[in-house]
Amino acid sequence: MPQPDQAAPDLDEAVGAGLDRLDTPTGARPTSLRRRFVRGFLPPVGALVLLVVIWQLLWAAAFWPETTLPAPLDVWAEFWGTVTNGSVFGFIWTSVHRAALGFAAGVVLGTPLGILVAKVRVVRAAIGPLLSGLQSLPSVAWVPAAVIWFGINDAAIYFVVLLGSVPSIANGLVSGIDQIPPILPRVGKVMGAGRFAAARHILLPAALPGFLAGLKQGWAFSWRSLMAAELIARSPSLGVGLGTYLNDGSSYNSMPMVIAAIFLILFVGVAIELIVFRPLERSVLRARGLTTSL
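and the corresponding structure tokens:
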């Protein structure tokens, strides 16, 4: 029969091994390419087909005039016309590169701002509510002021995009840092990490899931802000983006052009989500064993 002083170390080792096993991310079984295709591609395509069928039925029922609800084929003809003459690629490039540059600048400004708001009590009390207010303020409200301050040029558009993205990115990082277990900063402090090292090696990695959610929201606000700016601020020097294309459809009273522009704006937003943020989010969360549903 084992003595109590010999059984205790074995029990401690067993408990430690069990806790380590619980803390280790579970290895999800690799998903085949066919299974990922079926799960990721077919549901949205099925929803799109259903939407077009309902649209076609409503058009055939003639509840509304053609100028209000055009046929799906008319919208397709408008879209395909922009593809064949190459103009659609110019629309997408003009808008996407502006949104990407504005979003990148928003990350550069919003990340240190979020750390300051999260870790410095006076800064949080001073501008924390302001950031939340700016996040809920519709970006279109900034367009007239931006045009007056900067004129109708790229500076006005980037200003609106920044004011749309920075509050979301900063608030996402603040939320992520607030959810960090208190023991992690204490461990860093005990090990002699300074403020910069603690932010670089502890705060940002631990807050990554919340920060990533803030980045997604920041991109969404960047895209919406850009569309609002392109809809209102028009000039030959700005080129024609998707927002300008949508505005042209309204000016020409062309519903097929309006719907084609809306679908293009939606398509770009969904494509960025699926190509950039979904794989990044899946990688981060699975590495931490948080979810296998993405």
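(Above: one complete record from the training split.) The radius of gyration is 25 Å.
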